[in-house]
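Escalation from tier 1.

The customer reports that the assembly of two entities below gives different structure tokens on two consecutive runs. Tier 1 could not reproduce it. I'm attaching the input and our single run for tier 2 to review.
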Amino acid sequence: MIELHIILLFMIVAAFLAIEMRGLLSSVIALGAVGMGLVLQFLLLRAPDLAIVQLVVEILILIILIRATVKLDRPSESRLRENWAYLFCVLLFGGVFLFFGYRALTGLPVFGDPAMRVSSYYIENALEGTGAANIVSAILLDFRAYDTLGEVTILFTSIVGAIAVLRKIGRKK
Amino acid sequence: MSLYFMALVLFCIGVYGLVVKKNLIKKIIGLVIIENAVNLFLILTGFRTGGEAPILERGMEAVPEHFVDPLPQAMILTSIVIGLGVIALLVAISVRIYEKYGTFDVTKITELKG
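Tier 1 run:
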């Protein structure tokens, strides 16, 4: 799976650029590169539904972030004093995190051979149980419909919160 | 294994952006990178070499060994949409802070308070 490695490396480079670039608009565009790399990864990992949803969501996030930055962008960020102690702290914490993360990863099932205890039931019973040919939508809308209900509740609440924060009328001066 | 580790590196870059950067939009970008890394990691754990996408076609038998794991895919679909709602709320609060203080910089926001 060499192409997965290549796209993941591209995503890491784009993520680093998105964090480190000076202009906010350039950062947002680099973030779009990360998201599009993720879409390609989902396609290669045999998850077409996820690729479609990620494409739409990534474009919406770009629109929201560009709307927030394009008018308000002012390069007035106070720079951190980047000396050796700063660099040492970043490398130390990153190294410790990656070391223990690597130790934890060795306990997982190997890549390419998942332990499908619950999902095998879903795959075997999707067609006669729900009538849906797409097993992902069968899980999403039938086997685990309460999760989807919770998702819709969260989405509704967050949008109500955003509208309440951004409203123009009835706001105290 | 190396793919898992590279997803962890991507997560680490996102944490770096969230913790170190002072600009609110940079912090939000770090959060989006963390989300992407976690979603990618969970999908990677569900991949089966040579498996098909979990969509049944006519004449295909529903044998679990022929498909990639559909359960993480369904849950990540939920997580992606929730991420969009979270980002919308965060950006709304950031724009409101900018209207009040005239900057995205966290240190200057605390100086102007009171």
